[in-house]
Specification:
single chain; 224 residues; 7 strands
């Protein structure tokens, strides 16, 4: 009887030990099963955006850009606030460039002579991505009136070609068809850039405000 009791105790202890050493915590899932495109050539890191959610870090400027995979057709959905189009935060959460930091603003986005023209992907790449992304969002309007927009603009340190930072932005309400791109988001980006370069707000705060809601970004930071 003593031998049998000792064996049963050993089995019980082994069971408890194995149960406590499960390799996955409850609620953990494999990100590869999400159905989302693979991350851009960068890593999959993220940086804090102030008090809000973390923002993904992309690959940064590249010598040669390649066409990036886009979300599945019809999987992204526009939101509208006062009829202004906003991105789908699941498909387009934003991504920043690791080449732009708070400590090197003067040599990157705030330098005289410009920064964005030297890192912008060519239209041979973005033109193909725009068509694919239009399918992702189910966009059926005039492509010439829609902007293939960096959610976090290049002048705010957004990643140049990470699919998470690019979306087909429809024309604003009241926009005359066939008159080309003219979006209210663009001047918001310029005002944020000026504020960052003048030291009125931090780079991270500006990036966080634009990914949260570009229509309220200025008021959120007290710049409107």
């Amino acid at each position: 009887m003593r031998s049998t009791s000792r064996t049963a105790s050993s089995v019980l202890l082994a069971t408890v030990f194995l149960a406590g050493c499960s390799p996955l915590s409850p609620g953990t899932s494999d990100s590869s099963s999400s159905g989302a495109p693979a991350p851009g050539p960068s890593g999959t890191g993220a940086q804090g955006g102030g008090s809000g959610r973390s923002i993904a870090v992309g690959a940064g400027p590249q010598t040669t850009y390649t066409v990036q995979q886009q979300p599945a057709p019809g999987s992204c959905h526009y939101r509208y606030l006062k009829r202004e189009p906003l991105e789908d935060p699941t498909c387009t959460p934003g991504a920043v460039s690791p080449a732009v930091t708070q400590s090197n603003l003067k040599s990157t986005i705030c330098r005289k002579g410009g920064y964005t023209s030297g890192i912008r992907p060519s239209t041979s790449v973005t033109g193909k991505e725009k068509k694919l992304n239009a399918a992702s969002y189910g966009f059926t309007g005039r492509m010439s009136d829609a902007e293939y927009d960096h959610l976090i603009s290049l002048q705010l340190g957004g990643d140049p070609n990470d699919y998470r930072n690019l979306w087909v932005e429809p024309a604003d309400p009241g926009h005359r068809k066939g008159s080309g791109v003219n979006n209210a988001k663009d001047p918001v980006e310029t005002k944020l850039h000026t504020a960052v370069c003048k030291g009125k707000v931090t780079l991270a705060a500006a990036q966080q405000a634009i990914v949260t809601d570009w229509t309220t970004a200025l008021s959120r930071l007290g710049l409107s």
